[in-house]
Every structure is written in C-alpha cells, then in structure tokens.
Amino acid sequence: MAETGSAKAPTPGGFKRLIERYPFLPALGILIILLALNGIFSPNSLSYRSLTGLVSTYLALIMLAIAQTYVIFAGDIDLSAGAVVSLVNVVIIVLMEKMGGGGLAVFAALGVGVLAGLVCGLINGIVVAGLRLQAIVATFATSIFFTGFALWVMPVAGTPAPALFWRTYGSKLLGLPFVFYIVAALAILLFVISRTRLALQLLSVGDDAQAAYQTGLPVTPIRIKGYLLCGLFSALAAFCVTGDTASGDPLVGGKMTLFSVAAVVLGGSALAGGWGTVVGSLLGALTIGLINSLVFFIGTPSEWQNFVQGLAILVVLMAGILVGRRARA
Amino acid sequence: MTKVNETGAGKTGAAISEFLKRPLVIALVLIVVLLFAGNALSPGFASGQQILRLLIVAALLGIVAAGQNVVILGGREGIDLSVGGVVSLSAIVGGNVMNGADIGIVPAVLACLAVGGFFGLLNGLGVTLLRIPPLVMTLGMLGVLQGLLIVVRQGIPSGQAAPGLSSFVTQPFLFGLPGIIWLWVLIGVLMALMLTRTVFGHRIYAIGSNEHAAYMAGVPVKLMRVSVFVISGMFAAVAGLCLLGYSGSSFANVGEQYMLPSIIAVVFGGTSLAGGKGGYTGTMAGAVLLVILQSILTTVNIADSGRQMVFGATLLLLMLLYGRGRAMRA
Amino acid sequence: MAKLSLSGVSKAYGATLALRRGDLDIEAGEVHVLLGSNGSGKSTLCKIVAGSVRPDKGEVLIDGRPVTISGPQAARALGIGIFYQELSLSEHRSVAENICLADLPGKSGIFVDRAALEARASRYIALFAGVAGEGFSAEALVGNLRADQRQLVEIMKALSSEAPVIIFDEPTSALDRAQVDRFFEILRQLKTEGRGIIFISHRMDEITAIGDRATVIRDGETIRTLKLSETDPAEMIRLMVGENSDLPSAEHELPAAGPSAGAPLLSVRNLSGKGFRNVSFDVLPGEILGFGGLHGQGQSAVLRALFGASSISGGSLELSGRSLAVANPRSAIRSGLAYVSGDRGRDGVIQGRPIVENAAPIHYLKERLLLARPSALRDKVLPALGALHTKFASLAHPIGSLSGGNQQKIVIARWLIERPEVLLLDDPTKGIDLAAKADLFNLIRQLAAEGMAILLYSSEDAELLGNANRILVFNGGAVTRELTGADRTRYNLYQAAYEAA
C-alpha cells in the first residue's frame, strides 16, 4: 500500500481537480487579464473591429499551435512547423497564379496545399517515429529541407495572392466576418477530433510510450498520425497566412515555430506529452497575440518592442508553468 | 555468461566492428571522406589555407558546442537555444569594451564572461527554481536576447576588435596554427579532464542519468544544473568574442547560425540528447564535420534552395549513422 | 495437450545471457507458478511470451501449433494477456480508459464509444468492489491512485483481455490481504473456465495458497516442474538456490550481539510528517531496530523523512545528543546518516555509468573531493565491494552489465566507504536473490557489532525476526507496538500489524 496519512486515499483538492478537468483554465485566466489590460491602455482595442483584426492576424498562429499540440500530446515535437507553413504558402500562391486565380484555381490550390502539408507531416513522422531519430534535431533538419524546397518553388518573396483569395478572407458573410466562420468550423473540427480514438491514443503514447507499446498499441503508426495531423493544420495555418498577408514568402513561417511551442506551453499542455488540450493552445496563441498588441498599446518605443514582447512572453510562460505545476503536484 | 568459444579472429573482428561504431571514429572517417569529396568537386578545397579557415570556423562552433555539450549531458532534456543570442551580444559588448585597443582585451574578456554567465544564470534559475523546461526557458531567453540586440544596436556602435584579438584568431601562433585553434585544443583537453577526472564532471553525468538517485546520494542537483547553464553561457560568450576577432567588428545577428549547429555537433559527437552519456572529443569531431559539410555546400555552385535541401537531407542521413533511438521491442 | 508450451527459448542482451534454455508447459485450467531468484530469467521468459522481447532461439506453441509472437499486439491476438510487474498504465488517463486501452470500443471506426467503454470497464471494476479503497472510480486518473489501487487497475486491464492465457508477474506486491483474497477468488473462477494462468510471486504463502504446479528457473534454465501438492517450501527454495546451503538466518535464530548500553545514538521525539505522526523512539549504538507492520504504514515514510528526502511537520531529532535538522539528503549524509532504498531504479542506481561512478558519490561528498583519481578511488571502492562479495568484471564496466542483486550491492557499498553513524535501510533486499540477501545481513550484523545504529524496514517478516533486536510495529502511520526479547514472534508481529490504529 502507498504511503498515506491514515490509510486515506489522496483525493485531489478543489483547485487541482478543476485544472484536471479543464487544463486550459490558467490560460483562460491569463487571457482575460490581458484583455482587460489591453482595454485599459487602449479602449479601442476591445472593439468588435479590433478583435476581428486580432483574430484575423493570429488565426495562423492558432492553427499552428493546434498543429503542434497533437504532436506534443504524443511526446514528440515539430520544429519544422513554421517551415511547412512557408512551403504550403508559396506552393498555393504559385499554383493559383499559374492557374489564373479564379475560383477553381483557389480550390485546386487549397487541395494541393493540404496534400503538401500531409506529405511534410508524413516525412516528419517517418523520420522521427519510423527511423527513430531524435525529434528535436530531426525536425530541425527537415525544416531546413522544407525551407530549401520553399525557396526552390519561390526564390524571391512577393508574388501576390489572387484578389479572390484575400478578399474572401477579409470579407463578411451574412454580416459576420469570414474569419469567424473559420473559427466556428475550427471549433467543430477540434471537437470531432477530440472524440476520436487517435486523440486518446496520442495522449497514452505521450504518457508512457513503453507502457502503451506493452499494452498492444501500435505506437509508431500513432505517432506518425500525430505528425500527419500536424501537417494538416500547418497547411491550414498557411492558408490563413496567405489570406492575411495576401502574398507568398518562402521565409514567412520562420518565427512561428517557436511561438507555436510557446503557445502550447502557455495553454497548459505538458511539453513531455500525455496531458493537455487543444483549446489551451488556442488560448495560448491568442495570448501571444494580445501580449504583442499590449506592448504596442502601452506606447513602447519601436526598438524596444521586440525586447519587451520577448520578456512578456517569458514571464507569462513562467506564470503558466507555475500554475500548471501546482495543479499537477 | 556465454560459453561460446570465440576464435582469435572472431574476437578481433568483433572488437574492430565495435571500434568502428564509435561516434568519434565515424566522424573522423566522414571528415576524411568529405575532404576528398570536396577536393574532387572543387580543386583546392583541401588546400592548407582552406583547411586552416575551416578549422578556425570549426573552433568557433566547437567552443559554443562545448557549453551546449555540458548542458545536454546534464540531462532532464537540457538544451540551450539561447547561445546564438549570447554570441551576438557578447560580440557587441566585447567590441565596445575593447574599442580597437589591445589593453581593452582583458576587460573585454571579463565583460563577455560576465554577460554570458549572467544569461546562463537566468536560464539556470528558470530551469531549476521555476522548473521551466529548458527548451521553453532558453527559447524565451533567445527572444529576449534578440529584442535586446535590437535595442543595443540602435544605441551603441558595433565596436571594434583589438588588433591583438584579431591576430589571435586569424594569424599563426604556434606551428602555423592560430591561437584560437590552440585555445580550442586546450578547451578540449580541459573538458575531457573535467568530465572524467573531476567530481564535478562525474556529478554532471550522475544528474544526467538519474537525477533522483544523484539527489539521494547527496549530489547538489540544483547547483549543478544552474552551473551547466552558466558554463554554456560563458562558452558562448567566449565564442562571441573570438567571432569578433574573426570578422573585425560585429554585425547583424551573427550568432544565430551557431545555435542549431552546436546541437548537431553534440549529437554527432555521440552525446545523447537525453543526457548522461557522451563526451566532448566526439563533439569536436562533429563540429569539424559540420563545418566541412557546410563549406562543401557553399563551394558547389547551386542555388540557395538546393543547398538547403541537400544540407537538410545530409543531416538526416548522418543522424541515421549516429543516433537512432532504442527499438520498442528489445 | 498443453495450452501454452515453450521449449528451448533463449535470449541474450549483448554479452549477458538472460535466458539460456527456457521450457514451460501451461495446462488449461491451472495456476502455474514460476519460481526463481532475480536474474534467473523468469521475467524475460514472460516478456517473450507477452511479445515485448524478441527471443534469440526457441519455439512457442499454443494449443500445439507453433506460433511467432512478433509483438504485444500479436500476443494479444494469439490470446495472451499480461500483468506487467512495472505496470503498463497511462498516468493521466482514467481508470476506465486504461482498462480498455488495448482495444478501445469504437463508433464508426474512428470515434471512441464512451458508453461502451464505461460499460466494459465497470464489469472489471465491479470484480473488486469493496476492496479497492477510497477514491477509486472509473473516472479517477490513475496518477492520483495509491500503489495498491494502481496494481488493481493493471489486474483489471489484464483480465479485460479475456485471454485464454494470462501472465501475472508479481501482481500482489502492493496489495493488502483483502485484495489478495478477492484476486485469488477471481483466479479460481478463471481456472474453472479453463484458462491457463502463469503466476509469479516471491511470497511463499501465496504460492502455496493458489498454485497448482510450479516450474523452477535458475541461472536462465528451467530446472524442474513440480506439483505443489507434492512438495514443500523448503524443497522449492533449495531448487531455486541450487546448493544445499541453509537458509540465511533461520527464522527463529536471534541476533548474536546486542546493543551496547548507554546513551542512545539517535533519538526521535513526536516526529510527524507525510504518512506518519507522533513517532518516538531511541536507537542505541550497535542496535538493529526493526520497523514492522503491513506495507505502507509509515515505515518508509519515517526513514525518508529522517534522511531529509521528505519534509517533517513536527517533532525533534537528536544525534549523539546534538539536535539535528535535516533539510535534504545532502545535509543528512554530512551529519552521518546513510539511506539504502529498496527502489534501486529510482533512488539508487545511476544507470549507464560505470560501477566506480556508482560507488563513489558518498565518498566524494564526505571527503569534499574535487578530483576523482582512478587509482585512489579503486583503493577505496574495492574493499567496500569485497565486504559484500560482489562479483564484477571491472570497475569501468557499466553498472547495467550486472544483475539486479549485484547492482543493489554496489549501491549499498557506496555507503560503506566511510562509515556512517546511523544506517537507514528501507526494504534493502527487495528484488534481490537469496545469496545476496545472506551476504547483506551478515554485513549488517557485523556493522552493528562495530557500534553502528541501524534502522531496518523489511517487507519480509523473516528478515525482521531474524535480525532486529527490537521491532516497532507500524499501523496507520503510528507505532502501535514494540516487540522485544521473546515477544519477537511472527504471530505477535501479525497481530500487532492488524491491530486498529
């Protein structure tokens, strides 16, 4: 029998219980605080229009954070996520340009984009899970490869996206911004995914891969599927980037990778795997967006902005981890 | 124990194959192969001058990799992604303290070590006291450093390397090799001694292999972990100072290109990213290997895109030789 | 025809031959016990059957047909279920999810059928209704459960495989009496259904209670298969150990030397902390003080708290008359305490490092060394290893090249280079073989004779009764009785252990 005070089972205390059921709560709390601060320093920033703009700009990061989450669930990591975004971005731009930029071109390009994301995910999955190379270094290597490919597709940034594409992205449908529909569809998609066997299996593998293997789970295929999901959502992120920037840039995804990892950690998911939610990562991505805009609104001189942003993100990361730790302890 | 009677030849064969599988040996063999390949692709590649240049760059990378190596050995997913930022910052700080004068060298060294040590300390404290995963902590620190670099660049000039420093790095010092190469050799020797013959080194391996058991055996785990990050920061700072000597004055985000290669060099040297296993001599060979590889790719006249693709693919290929994980089924 | 049959199975890990020749025949409707000391190969044999280890040679037959077990999935498909000694659970998943994990009930192929999952899990949870303890439910996260509850989940998981052959590798090590009884009822039921059960345990009373036949494995080879009704514990142990050596410290032999009179070396007053409260006792120099009682009643907790590995919420300590405050193991070691844990994988062995590095840490600390010179280390380490008759090829070899028992010896040796004043032993012989145990207890008695104060907690009564001068029986985190002199009998021990706290 375990060490107990007086043979009493350790039922988790109230706070811990809450975090166990809703691991994204600390992230939500931080987000609300940031919204409040943003509102204090610039009341305009909480307007409908501003919030729409925020979501529109950071939707890509949200998608990428979600992509990263599935891989991190299984205890892996994908440091090539940003490179995949760049790759898909230039691929669809070039395709749409070549095909004339009409509706058919857009749909065809989207299809190819998804395919490209899946292929990248498959490559990552085979390299990390199949060949058993260490994820951090291996996905760094694939990121170099994917960036190279993106540079081959479009050596110089600047090719514009067809008007149809970015106009739709920024448009309104039935009075609501297009991005809201994307968010709604995303929410439904995430809900559906969370109910699948794969989601549970990813978390099990991340919890203890050896135990999952001994239980009879097909660990390698599960991890590869995690990377496939990551590739898929990276492609979706690329679509959002394309809609937002309206152009192609083979290096656009550069900083996004690190932000996506930060968003996942901010969202309360365990970096080692086995624990967490995609909702948390979504909130984490929004948090990063809000930090960046807050730093801007409090009037930071432009050359200090990067520094303060970096510092703020570090501080919030610490806060998020501390709270999560107290809950998991 | 098996009672199989191995013949003399069989035993030697087994021993040779074990020897050949050692990461250090693989790295050395690959270095020779690549030098030949490079020379074939671009005659004069393996000339004395070229090799010297490669060695200098390898030394710069190797110094950063030394710190990275120690952090990774310490286990608990130890990694230092902020080294690039420290290298860049150290180059600027050093340049400004020295301001082109030889008497400024010693103060510059001290200032750089302080800067590197400071950020290493922050990393270490974040990892041990706040228990932030090293990946996240050093990543965040990198972001802070990059922001800081922007601020610093606006405010102060990029500084000037002292002639003494430049010649240390670029001019022959002993047996035709520049001082930096000897510095690297010295670091290599000191690292090997530290890791194998000191209590500190043994403790690094202990916390890397089984932190809890080390704790129960009285090893000051927290102190050790903070130390490895401080060491990494200081090595990165030294590399930054030498980089300043190499290029005369600092520019842009010059240190960024050292971060990923430092990790790869460590992996190629046979150190496991999980910690507790490996050593620095392999890393030195790994650094040389990596530099030659990058150089070959620059020499060969292909577009940037092709270069990156080949580099990425080659890295993956080399990783197959070195560090495949354990199979699930024993 | 045997349900499961292994012949000539062997497995080597590099230079170490874990299993030389394993033979086994399991009939339907029997509980077949595997007997053997640690390092004998029985765990390897089970892992080969379960598919997580690949055999080098040998044949496996199920219902007479030769089969190839290519992995755990294949083993499951062939009708083999297993309870893993180290457990194969996902900490952050619920009990129900863990039970059904291997074969999640699905809806339209990709979704999880929650209702079916809960229904299936509750069938197995119901089997242990009433004995699982507080806080056990289908939704509880496994990570929040106690050790015995986790073992129950692993049992339920093995049962849910509904496999015709199930292997149980040390399933009862953390369970209490009621849970073991219920488990044995279930096993008997499985027998009547014609299943074949492989059962591994170190506890003789359990083996004789539930086993039908037993196979003894020694040094990687199957020695003999016996019917339990036709043999006795003494013969089984003889077969396991191999020579006609007598048991170390026969049960009723009292320790030779007693403690010296005088001031206590260690004094504990009203000590409270996580898992224990108001514990008070003195230990004289040369005394071996035993901690008894059922597993997990505070014995380990007290020892760890004394060593600074967990916090103390109240009470005081005195060592040789001076007040003692231990904040962490480092300061405890400096003050003269030593602690040997039964969980060597977590607390003791520094995996992957050479033997000498595993033996040296305390020496480094106590002598405040900075340099580690091989020759000086060798001079210090060899005598300590010799005192325990440790067999090894070279000090530079990795510690993983030794068997579990020998690894534990190295861990113990590290404390002997500089003599501590107080030695805390927390189930030090868990998982090590009989010969190693004998060596260890001889050494412990010798150390006591030299004046060391020793606290000994052992989960095996025979060890306590045979070595301790006094025994403090723990129940519910407090000391309920002290047994001295002629009171040190198994009966009294059990009685005190079961007394209401």
Summarize the structure in words.
- In chain A, 74% of the residues lie in helices and 1% in strands.
- By secondary structure, chain A is mainly alpha-helical.
- In chain A, a hairpin with a 2-residue loop joins strand 1 (172-173) and strand 2 (176-177).
- The two termini of chain A are 20 Å apart.
- Chain B has helices at 8-21, 23-41, 48-73, 83-98, 105-128, 134-155, 163-170, 179-197, 199-209, 211-216, 221-247, 259-268, 280-299, 304-322; strands spanning 172-174, 177-178.
- The two termini of chain B are 19 Å apart.
- Chain C is of the alpha/beta class.
- Chain C has 3 domains: 1-79 and 163-245, Rossmann fold (3-Layer(aba) Sandwich), CATH 3.40.50.300; 89-162, no CATH class; 266-498, Rossmann fold.
- Chain C is 33% helix and 25% strand.
- Mean pLDDT of chain C is 86; it is low at 244-254.
- The chains are: A mainly alpha (329), B mainly alpha (330), C alpha/beta (501).
- Chains A and B meet through helix 6, helix 10, helix 12 and helix 14 of A and helix 6, helix 12 and helix 14 of B.
- Chain A: One of its GO terms (molecular function) is transmembrane transporter activity.
Write the layout of secondary structure elements.
The complex is a heterotrimer of chains A (329), B (330) and C (501).
Chain A: H1 14-21, H2 25-41, H3 48-73, H4 81-98, H5 103-130, H6 135-153, H7 163-169, E1 172-173, E2 176-177, H8 178-194, H9 197-207, H10 209-215, H11 219-245, H12 256-266, H13 278-297, H14 302-328
Antiparallel strand pairs in A: 1-2
Chain B: H1 8-21, H2 23-41, H3 48-73, H4 83-98, H5 105-128, H6 134-155, H7 163-170, E1 172-174, E2 177-178, H8 179-197, H9 199-209, H10 211-216, H11 221-247, H12 259-268, H13 280-299, H14 304-322
Antiparallel strand pairs in B: 1-2
Chain C: E1 4-13, E2 16-26, E3 30-35, H1 42-50, E4 57-62, E5 65-67, H2 72-77, E6 80-83, H3 95-100, E7 106-107, E8 111-112, H4 114-126, H5 147-160, E9 165-169, H6 177-192, E10 196-200, H7 204-210, E11 213-218, E12 221-227, H8 233-241, E13 266-273, E14 276-283, E15 288-292, H9 299-306, E16 312-319, E17 322-323, H10 329-335, E18 337-341, H11 344-347, H12 355-359, H13 361-366, H14 374-387, H15 404-413, E19 422-426, H16 434-449, E20 453-457, H17 461-467, E21 470-475, E22 478-484, H18 490-498
Parallel strand pairs in C: 3-10, 3-11, 6-9, 9-10, 15-20, 15-21, 18-19, 19-20
Antiparallel strand pairs in C: 1-2, 1-4, 4-5, 7-8, 11-12, 13-14, 13-16, 16-17, 21-22
Helix pairs in contact in C: 4-5
